[in-house]
Amino acid sequence: MSAEAMSAGAAGAEAAGGRAAGAEVTLLGVRHHGPGSARAVAAALAALQPDAVLIEGPPEADGLVAAAAEKEMVPPVALLAHVADDPARAAFWPFAEFSPEWVALRHALDAGVPVRFIDLPAAQSLALGPRGARDDGPPADGDGTVTGGGDTSGRDGASEEGEGSGVPGGTSGPAPVDPIAELAAAAGHLDPESWWEDAVEHRTPDGDPLAPFAALAEAMAALREHHPAERRDLVREAAMRQQVRAARRAGHRRIAVVCGAWHVPALAAMPTVAHDRALLAELPKKLKVELTWVPWTHRRLSQHTGYGAGIDSPGWYHHLFTSPEQPVARWMTKVAELLRAEDHPVSSAHVIEAVRLADTLAAVRGRPLPGLTETLDAVRAVMCDGSDVALALVHRRLVVGDALGEVPDSVPAVPLQRDLTRLQRTLRLKPEAEPRDLVLDLRKDLDGERSRLLHRLRLLGLHWGRPSRDGVNSTGTFRETWQLCWEPEFSVRLVEAGQWGTTVRSAATGKAVADAANAELTALTALAEQCLLADLPDALPEVMRALADRAALDTDAGHLAAALPALVRTLRYGDVRATDTSALTAVAHGLAERLSLALPAACTGLDADGATARRAELDAVHQAIALLGGDTAERWAGTLAALAAREPHGGPATGVPGLLRGRAVRLLLDDGRLDAEEAGRRLGLVLSTASEPADAGGWVEGFVSGGGALLLHDPTLLGLLDAWLCGVPADAFTDLLPVLRRTFSSLETGVRHTIGSRVAAGPLTAPAGGSAPSAPLDEERADATTEVLALLLGVQVPQPRIPRQTDRRATA
Q1: Which of 633, 685, 628, 635 has the alpha carbon at shortest distance from 662?
Q2: One Pfam family name from the record (predicted)?
């Protein structure tokens, strides 16, 4: 189909279309986000000089197009549409610098000619729901929810790429088709993307600027004869034709239409107005929607992020569009700069050889110019020494890229978004798509405010900052380490969070209060800690009230054990952020008392996995109660003593597992509530022949884990353990071996070696008194340390004592 045929087909519609006499409509079919298509559109518009430009997109955005001319508008950006009373139902229309639609939009604005969006209104496309729900009307359940990265109305599926009418997953209607794959196969190519690069993206406009569009339109017309469009596309095309007719009625004589190439045949041969009205009459009722511009990223343009009309290599396409002269040499230079910044030894000679290799590979493979495949092969071989690790860095940073767009303040925004923007500027926290670490010192006012902002956003489900695993992020320190990374879908979450308040603080407060109404005990303790970290004094009383109610009713010891440590940690370290933690004190003590009563029964009759999980809870609770102190610690010591005494005389189901009994004894010993002699007596009882080897092995694991130095300082304990181990029957020893290995592998390396040396040195016999004899005091050696100790302690050095000869003999 020639360019003249396309124009004639559009202009030959019936007079009922209401077009002005002599109006000419030129259809420019494109692939979205294609640099070759963008250059071709720019050349075609420069030649046509249209007096109106129509672009595939939601018509409600016509009032926002002027913002694209502002210098603060930096692509990639996207149009965001969301349902006013249900912000989670949203859709994006992204634009990159190399998007043909963006080129057409900027051409119209620079030329001062009207520009309109002509796709199905967002109010109706959102009512239809996501592509693939149903093709013949609204979703069966009436819910067409599309979450933040999704897109239902402007870039959904392959058809929005100018590629076909692909529909994900079991829908009615025609089978999905990939037009680029079909055209590549017809040309004898197995790789559709490589064929498209050679045929379109690497082309520079020369000769007739309309010739590429004519060839593509002819190919799409042939494809649509064999692959009919699905019903959703037919409805959208009816809406586009109505907009073209409206442009004619407005008196425009040279109209340029930029749309997906798949739609060109449907717009070239217009049916009657009645036909299109009948299709549009089947649409569901319009929803109330709101639109705005939001920043976008190159990463979100890539297919592997889940965006339906994405491209594999937005960073590469951006380079092709912005560097038409010597693109390969300039690309290799960028790669070299990146690798040098990451301490890879890359020289100018590497760049030259990489360019030569890419050109050679393209010639061998029969390609007109090196494509992305050839450049990456050359980079891997020459600059990365065959390493896929270094190549992955190039792919992430350059092939995909992390460019983040910007939008001017003049575009509409919800109050919550404006407040966040104000805070970002005040606190000097610029949103960036590239992840970066941020270390905060909470003693500084600025860092304290930054910490509160990030914690409040996390409460709202907006994880711009995430606690870094490599850093220290604890309420018990003055230091927090975050990793910041801005994602475009945060714009949708800000709209959703607007229901809780108009500022970040009020929205976080409202969200916390709402969450507290239905949260379980463990979630409430975490929520209380979040409220303190985020400094939300208005939310904390409501959360504490709910926490007290849940704690009074919850009888599950596991829930109580999971809830207490977070509360105590907040009580102990809340003053780091100068927050009031008094409201938590009564609840924390109440939880500790109830846990002291409930835990012994909850530890009875557990299997191996249950005992292991309970032991972790036991350690956490013990540490928490140690911080609480007072009468609570005394009651807890009684609970540990009760646990240690509950032996399974009537079978495993009648008592506390050995792992927990041994752990209770160890905790009492470490706290000084049990002496070493009593601990040795209990160990001797457990390791007697009357005890089951498996239970005894668990007891030893609980007793020894956490530090084995006590076995070195008390030969009695080590001797008892050695004697028991030597006396375990062979069949029982095989079953015990995994437990014993796990137990001793947890000890410090030096302790393990020393224990092994002592055991290998000979029999370990405990002295009759139950403890090792004390070595005589060497006063002369002790006196030699006095001066050094005084210097370390900062006290006055006493006069050294010189022992008399008669004293030495007496000591000897």
Answers
A1: 685
A2: DUF5682
